Amino acid sequence: MLKEEIGWLEGVERATKLKRLPVVLTGDEVHKIFTHLHGPPRLMAGLLYGSGLRLMECVRLRVKDVDFGYARIMVRDGKGAKDRVTMLPVNLAMPLQRHLAKVKAQHEQDLEDGFGEVHLPCALERKYSGAARSWPWQFVFPSSRISMDPRTGTRRRHHVDENVLQVAVKRAVRASGVNKPASCHTLRHSFATHLLENGYDIRTVQELLGHKDVSTTMVYTHVLNKPGIGVKSPLD
Q1: Of 138 and 225, which is predicted with more confidence?
Q2: 36, 54, 76, 84: which is the annotated catalytic residue?
Q3: Is 220 annotated in the active site?
Q4: Which segments within the chain are labelled E, that is strand?
């Protein structure tokens, strides 16, 4: 910009990002935490641990993307704007169906009250008229109240705030007595690690997590299904 020659810069090195190992819970610790979760937060945490969803993928989940027949979940517009398919835990199928029955009754009441619309991504609201009020496009975990959409000024029911689950998990971890800095994303870390411990190949886990590079998934191999790190100590 100043049109001045800087000259050759010697010995310049690219900064490297520090690598941090993820916190992983044992199966027993996950069970202890889940005993202190109830209602929708328990279902949402179940999808984080049982399906490997990210926090925002869970709160933005729509009814049409949950396939009970094939026991799978279609994750739309995940990290990197990618779609992927992951499993729907069989143990969550019935509780999730009961939850959706309540959500549908709430949606029908909203329609009677003159509301019932949800925000649609991109230009789908213009392309598919009436889709915003249809049941398949509703959020699986809607907000408890109707609010004003700042983008359009329309009063509608958005998805639940992600902070609701974050606070619920934080309280459950504290109440369970688990002495690890666990959070919502820790459940996703535990999902990947426990699959690898159960013998599933790393490429399968990579697809379920939606990682672009398998080296990202390799970080979960630091926890083995053995005490310590899988190497026998000379003291033992």
Answers
A1: 138
A2: 54
A3: yes
A4: 66-67, 72-75, 84-87, 147-148, 155-156
pTM: 0.84
Active site residue 3: no
Distance CA 194, CA 18 (A): 25
How would you class 127 by CB atoms within 10 Å of its CB: exposed for 0-12, middle for 13-18, buried for 19 or more? exposed
- From start to end of 127-176, where are the E strands? 147-148, 155-156
Full DSSP string of 47-100: HHHHH---HHHHHT-BGGGEETTTTEEEE-S-TTS--EEEE--HHHHHHHHHHH
The question of whether 200 is a catalytic residue gets the answer: no
- The yes-or-no answer on residue 211 being catalytic is yes
Is residue 185 part of the annotated active site? The answer reads: yes
Q: Any catalytic annotation for residue 49? A: no
Distance separating alpha carbons of residues 53 and 29, to the nearest angstrom:
19
Pull the structure tokens for residue 214.
């398998």
Answer yes or no: is pLDDT of 149 > 90.
no
